[in-house]
Amino acid sequence: MSTVQFTFDGVTYHGNKGEPLSAALLRNGIKVVTESSYRLRPRGVVGLGYEEPCALVQIDSGSGEPMVPATKIELVDGLVVRSLAGVGDLPNQIDKARYDKTFRHVDVLVIGAGLSGLKAAQKAANSGKSVIILDDQFEAGGYLKDLNEKIDSKILNSLKKNNVTHLQRTTAIGLYDQNYVVAIERRTDHLSAEILPEIARMRNWHIRAKEIILATGAFQRVLVFPNNDRPGIMLSHAAATYLHKYRVGTFNSAVVVTVDDFGYQDAIRIHKSGVKVQAIIDIRKKVTGKLLEQVKKLGIEVILGSTVVNTSADQSGSLNSVSIAQTSLEGEVIGIKQEIKTDLLAVSGGWTPTVHLATYLNLKPVWDKKIAAFVMPKLPQNIKATGFSNGEFDKVTNPPAVFFGIIPEGEDAKVSFIDLQRDANVRDLRRAVGAGLTSVEHIKRYTTIGTAHDQGKTSGTTTMGLLGQLISKEPHEVGTLTFRPPYVGVPFSALAGRDLGILSDPIRTTPIHSAHLLANAPMEDVGQWKRPWYFPIEKENMHDAVLRECKAAREDVAVMDASTLGKIDIQGPDAGIFLDRIYTNMFSSLKVGASRYGLMCGVDGMVFDDGVTTRIAEDRFLMTTTTGGAAKVLDWLEEWLQTEWPDLNVYCTSVTEHWSTVAIVGPKSRNLLAKLAPTLDVSNEAFPFMENRYAEVAGIPARIARISFSGELAYEINIEAWYGLHIWQEVMKKGKEFNIAAYGTETMHVLRAEKGFVIVGQETDGTQTPQDLGMDWIVSKKKDFIGKRSFTRSDTTRNGRHQLVGLLPLDNKTLLPEGSYIVNEGDSKKEGKLTHIGYVTSSYSSSALSRTFALAMVADGRNQIGKFAEVPIGNNVARVEIVDSVFLDKENTHRDG
Amino acid sequence: MLLINCPWCGPRDETEFHYGSEAHIGYPEKPEELTDKQWAEYIFYRNNPKGWFAERWVHNVGCRRWFNIWRNTVTHQFGPSYKPFTKQPSRPK
Amino acid sequence: MTIKRRHTEELPEHPDFLWKNPSPKKSYDVIVIGAGGHGLATAYYLAKNFGITNVAVLEKGYLAGGNMGRNTTIIRSNYLWDESAGIYEKSLQLWEGLEEEVGYEMFFDQRGVMTLAHSVSDLRSKQRNFYANAVNDIDSQWLTPEEVKKIAPIVNISPDVRYPVLGATYQARGGIAKHDWVAWGYAKAASDLGVDLIQGCEVKKVKVENGKVVGVDTNQGFISANKVAMAAAGHTSVLSEMAGFRVPLQSRPLQALVSELLEHVLDTVIMSGAVHVYVSQAHKGELVMGAGTDAYNSYAQRGGFHVIEHQLASALELFPIFSRAHLLRTWGGIVDIAPDASPILGLTPVENLYINSGWGTGGFKATPGSGWAFADTIAHNRAHELVKPYSLDRFVSGHLIDEHGAAGVAH
After folding, report:
1. Which of residues 409-448 of A touch C (CB under 8 A)?
2. Chain C, 36-95: which have a CB under 8 Å from a chain A CB?
3. Which CATH number belongs to the domain containing residue A201 in this structure?
4. What are phi and psi of A398, to 5 degrees?
């Protein structure tokens, strides 16, 4: 064992590498580690593991971490910690450590590598099963390891030989349905106080096990009596281990107070460490057997039928004496008090099997009076418990007393602590009962017991026991233990793993993306896609860029990367019939090579998605969807096919990423296309609107669709995805002579809005029927389709529904904010709540109109056309005229160029 | 993380699936003949029992196929899974 | 950082006496099923506003042991639709005087609620929400990312994150309260006014004769009543079925989590639908966060851990400083969700039987308003104006109130 340096509260100390910080603190004479959160009482080390309620520290070295039990920090050179009073500090520096996750399936998962766990793992491995054994201690051996007893090396060797995954410093934090366990492995903190960038600091194990063996051990309990919180009062197992195993020589003498035989064992260990045990104070009236003889032989006095009834402290607040007295099992002090000077009180208040994981599955622990503990209930078939966690305290000869402490009144009650970290005490418990509370859940909330960092590991059973003593009930009549995951506190970063930053959500880009980046186009997030928003030239702002791009599309030619649109290949002899049921309009009548715009609704009749679908062959359609809706639509199609219409012979495949789509838009797009595809007859007669042609474009076989989302003459060039960039570059090159401009999503929105075309998700919010959008023309009266029945419900047929209209601000420079609400003329200035008639869905400055304009949903909108209304914007009011939703080229003359 | 037995692929983690709520709700044969109330029942009303529930899942990032399965909504225990349009196994005990 | 530090100090104590634990009487004017926040508030307002004190609140477990004790305590009224704004704003107004009215500390703290937008379309819908609030006379501010940073310095507003913060709505009157204290405040006040709070009393059957409710069978025997009001959240489907009608509700797990107590770094409530986060730092210093609902129907009050992990990853994107906070406790409630994510309130097909359900993830903030309007509805045997839009009939007519965008997490 090597000596290392560490810093506690700014002072440098020495300790042994690998021992718990708590041992090093004690050896250095630091009994007072911190103050309690609320009552500011001095507190020291109480326990040995995660049950520690008091000695919590802030780690400042390495990654830094708030509120870690000193009992669970392995001493390394350079460790810097400081004391905390119940409140942690979030480190400000960015954590440079890595955290990762791993996922495993295994036959048997053993949780706990004490002797019982190790044996269980050995047995499973010997029978040929795949096994993981994990344990939250620094080394295997559990309880025996604390006693300094060696585990038979044969067991560990056989695990190794059988390829058992054996993880120490790994804590199972949760048990979930179907035997799913989450465990956190701490991999570097024991190696270095610094961050080791090459090793993940923590690894988050997700393990699905056919069988789980809980060998999780048990925690010792505190006893309740006045001033039971002084530094120097420790759980006896912890005290004996610090003194005997870790050779902590800070204490001069000891007193053991106990309810069971474990107190005797621990007294012997303390004695062996060289510290005089003045007395064992046992609440039990009668004790027999070897242990008793042993302690008597060592000269330790045993006082039966008694317990500790108070303590006192020196100036530092540490224990310097205990008062003992005869006491009944109900907690009534019946004898004369006697004082014993001592600086260590080792408390053996009974053991609580660690049943946490089972309670996460809502299994209720049951009370076992024989061992004075809540034990595992009947477990599901594929979960077993063994060892201490199963209540197998086999070395016991005398049964423990069912005793949790004394229940004083008055001032003494205020310093008789049940939950040390929360400073919750007997007075609180008495008040809770007096307040009319009967449920232990209420009592926990009233007193805050069990809500602190240790989540009631030492206080849970004690609360129920004392409550029972108080109202003359057995502990199980009061309630049972309920815990919630995680078993111990886990840094958020260990749970987030690497799902951060760029890995938090996939980024989807088109094959043309690099060109957009070169053009310095700002990107818009559309679902997971990155889409160019606009293409500024030099220092142009968005407004100017968009006006220029729109002008190019209306007067010359402009080009957009439309590759992100969802594409679904729909094949099969019944594809046409299928689409008739999905879309509100007919598709079975579409001729091969033609395209048609379609609208689909949910069963509730509300618009769900839209897009152009092309009949590629008699039995094959290519559907396009909105960029954000693609996955949703494919799911929708497959659900109907599989669960309603299995008789239809149709198959759907997502081909979004298979094709790049470059849209060329504007009066000169025909000329441009002619240059790009010299073999193609681009005349209006040979290649009419809503038709498709196959031709080579810039040397690449392409399907060209003559469709338009702007009202202008336009073509969409579809090529195999990897040619996207090539086509884009060729389009830009050949388009130069036509003053081509690239445009992004914003210009696309403006162009379509000028024509009154809706965008699903912008004009719609899931509450619009096609009729609301003025699209009655697309709703077939001849056939049934999804959602049709919903159109005749009373709310969908009522007058006054919001309908799509256009708005023209009377001041033609006023840009109405999208989302702003519309009120009747004169209503803007009214006090209080305003009655609104609708809201703005889209609003832009138009180059073609030389003014601003907007689309809106307005109550009974189509009957309001020609009327005036107001849009309150903060303290201002914009007056608007309600107009038709088509602003440009109502006669559709542009589309043929 | 439930472990769900896809009848095509076998047991897989819950994150591979999407939920489809109550099974055996058929699209009405003649929606136009239903009253508004009956239509509302079809669109919006799904059973929500405490205990065994025959429900739908789709193995979304696996075989992408829909299936039905018995699951207990109190214990999260699963009963048998079965393909659409096959005979429903009896309610588990 | 310019955060006002709240030092961890001992909270004021609960009063010496809370409520009586009577045995049920044979008969009541009104039985309220469910001693959650809404049930308790309903009983309180029945007694306080209408003098109806011969009331029992029946609770199968312990009082406020369901969602009332499991939520993330966010209070706000900045909803999109007029109907929602109506009842949530009434609720917020009641919150603003509640501690005084009920005479119980509730730690109601109007520290503001911020809802972040992360994409252009997200921005547009949040803007609409902001303007909708303005016409409904509900306080609301629009914040730029820099203004977000001013109010909550720990938010990462860098444009380089996966989904950068583009703006936010902010309701300064929004905030948090301490849920147990709210429930207990209502319980104590109701008990003081003569309402019987009966715990461990499970309703086994809702008794209906000639289309009219006459009482309930419980594990403590039959209790008759002139009127029965259901306020049983996730268990509403089960109760309705007992009474012979169906409700379009699905019960789903909703999980939440807390950290250990930490020095104060966040002095407002922050929600982000797009990256699935809602978080506040409670009075004593613990970070309180909500996750999304689990996908499936459940009555088990637990969900999957992957939901929590996803939630924490999202949180670290927005709040890098949280990386070393510890997850201390997770838990689940059962939320009852209607198809439009809005509540179902009012009369039922059974005469004198009333329903208050479907609050989904929004129930806590509605507690006072819901109880207030529900009591009025019960007392007058007709739907209060604020309750009317939430009738069961809306699923037949199609007049839904689609608040899917309203929760911090879209589901």
Report:
1. 423, 431, 434-439, 441-442, 445-446
2. 61-63, 65, 69
3. 3.50.50.60
4. -100, 130
CA distance B66 to chain A (A): 7
Buried b (16+ CB within 10 A) or exposed e, A126-156: eeebbbbbbbbbbebbbbebbbeeebeeebb
> Exposed, middle or buried, C409 (CB in 10 Å: 0-12/13-18/19+)?
buried
In the listed set A171, A193, A215, which residue is the last one of a domain according to the structure? A215
A677 secondary structure, DSSP code: -
pLDDT at residue number C5 = 34
Q: Return the closest-CA partner of residue A858 out of A881, A889, A829, A890.
A: A881
* Residues A557 and A670 grouped into a single domain: yes
A494-519 pLDDT tens trace: 999 999 988 989 999 999 999 999 99
Pairing between strand C353-357 and C221-230?
parallel
Tell me if residue A775 falls in helix, strand or coil: coil
**Distance between the two ends of chain A, CA-based, in angstroms?**
87
**Beta strands across the sheet bearing A3-8:** A11-16, A3-8, A79-83, A56-59, A65-69
Residue A827, chain C, CB below 8 Å: the answer is no
Residue to substitute from A495, A608, A798, interface C, most C β-carbons within 10 A: A495
Chain B nearest-CA residue for C242: B49
Q: Which of A525, A612, A507 is nearest to A568 (CA)?
A: A612
Tokens of B78: 């699963």
Report the alpha-carbon distance of residue C246 to residue C237 in Å, rounded.
7
**Are residues A533 and A681 part of one domain?**
yes
Longest dimension (CA), chain A: 115
Cβ contacts (< 8 Å) between C298 and chain B: which residues? 73-74, 76
A628-667 CB burial, b ≥16 within 10 A, e <16: bbbeebbebbbebbbbeeeebebebeeebeebbbbbbbbb
Cross-chain residue pair A37–C261, CB shorter than 8 Å: yes
Per-residue pLDDT tens digits for A315-365: 999 999 999 999 999 999 998 999 999 999 999 999 999 999 999 999 999
Q: State the Cα angle at A571 between A567 and A572, rounded to 5°.
A: 160
Q: Nearest Cβ partner of B66 from A643, A792, A793?
A: A643
> Rounded CA gap, A263 and A460, in Å?
20
Q: Does the CB of C304 have a partner CB in chain B at under 8 Å?
A: yes
Nearest to A176 among B1, B42, B56 (CB): B1
Say if residues A263 and A286 touch (Cβ distance below 8 Å). Answer: no
With beta carbons under 8 A apart, name residues in chain A contacting C402: 765-767
> How many CB pairs lie under 8 A apart between chains A and B?
56
Please say whether the beta carbons of A38 and A66 come within 8 A: no
CA-based angle C250:C251:C255, to the nearest 5?
135
Residue A72 shares a structural domain with residue A154: no
Q: In whole angstroms, give the CA distance from residue C326 to residue C346.
A: 43
What is the domain-level CATH number for residue A52? Answer: 3.10.20.440
Q: Which domain holds residue A417?
A: 407-481
B58 and A638 within 8 Å at the Cβ level: the answer is yes
CA A720 to chain centre: 39
> Are A531 and A670 found together in one domain?
yes
Q: Are A737 and A668 in contact (CB under 8 A)?
A: no
Same domain (yes/no): A874, A832: yes
Structural domain contains residue A319: no
The residue extents of the domains of chain B are 3-82
Q: What is the pLDDT of residues A709-765, one digit of tens each?
A: 999 999 999 999 999 999 999 999 999 999 999 999 999 999 999 999 999 999 999
Kindly determine whether residue B46 and residue C250, on different chains, have CB atoms separated by under 8 Å. Answer: yes
pTM summary value = 0.95
**Tally of domains within chain A:** 6
CATH class of B3-82: alpha beta
